[in-house]
């Protein structure tokens, strides 16, 4: 696998690698090799038997890339995937040639946000059979934008299905891990590689202000606003997101 043509895609919570399906097709067609790690607790992998920490997830992905002998790849993450990507940059920035941060944020959670995450973790563990319903009520409204809810029922149904599949123990583990994550603003400030900050115009979980916090500290940052999309922009506006990613890759990455 040629490092200069390799992209590592990290998925959002509580989805899995399927959320990148459209981008995987588009990037492959454009000549890019892809790695879509199965984050612990999603897909076929088990939840880590350790205190919740996104640094541990970052270590798992870094080991996977080492096994595959991948160095110098482009690192991309959406939402939770962005948090993991920044944790990987904290641990091994020299291993990546560029960064794409989609619908995510570099700041740590507020006290209120941490409390809400712990409350959700407790709720799904107390009623594991109701996990999907709890996520549909508490998480789904923030994952998708108003345009998607109004005009894209198939997308709403698809994302709702992913929530129904989520394992309660994984939901609880990741909620606690995200609540415990540190700020990554200094990590981004130290980054010397090209970076794309991409977000949905209707994203209420990682709104525009959070994006500008990252853009303000990135030395080689560029931005992409996705109209008519919320927090899962890659699923809501797949062709637009794919196009903006390829533009970044072909421009900032291959010409750098």
Automatic annotation (TrEMBL):
Pfam short name (any one): Abhydrolase_1
Any one GO MF annotation of this record: catalytic activity
Residue intervals of the AB hydrolase-1 domain: 7-238
Name the record gives this protein: Unannotated protein
Organism expressing this protein natively: freshwater metagenome
């Amino acid at each position: 696998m040629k490092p200069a043509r390799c992209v590592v895609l990290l998925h959002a919570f509580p989805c899995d690698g399927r959320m990148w399906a459209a981008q995987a097709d588009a990037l492959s067609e454009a000549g890019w090799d892809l790695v879509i790690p199965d984050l612990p607790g999603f897909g076929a992998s088990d939840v880590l038997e350790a205190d919740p920490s996104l640094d541990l997830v970052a270590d798992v992905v870094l080991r996977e890339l080492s096994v595959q002998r991948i160095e110098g790849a482009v690192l991309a993450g959406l939402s939770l995937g962005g948090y993991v990507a920044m944790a990987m940059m904290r641990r091994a920035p020299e291993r990546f040639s560029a960064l794409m941060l989609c619908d995510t944020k570099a700041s740590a959670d507020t006290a209120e946000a941490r409390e809400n995450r712990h409350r959700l973790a407790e709720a799904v563990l107390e009623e594991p059979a109701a996990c999907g319903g709890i996520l549909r009520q508490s998480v789904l409204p923030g994952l998708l934008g108003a345009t998607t809810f109004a005009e894209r029922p198939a997308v709403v149904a698809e994302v709702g299905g992913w929530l129904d599949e989520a394992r309660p123990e994984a939901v609880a583990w990741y909620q606690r891990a995200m609540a415990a994550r540190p700020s990554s603003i200094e990590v981004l400030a130290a980054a010397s590689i090209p970076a794309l900050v991409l977000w949905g115009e209707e994203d209420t979980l990682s709104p525009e202000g959070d994006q500008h916090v990252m853009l303000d500290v990135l030395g080689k940052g560029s931005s992409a606003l996705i109209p008519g999309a919320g927090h899962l922009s890659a699923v809501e506006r797949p062709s637009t997101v794919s196009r903006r990613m390829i533009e970044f890759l072909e421009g900032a990455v291959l010409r750098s």
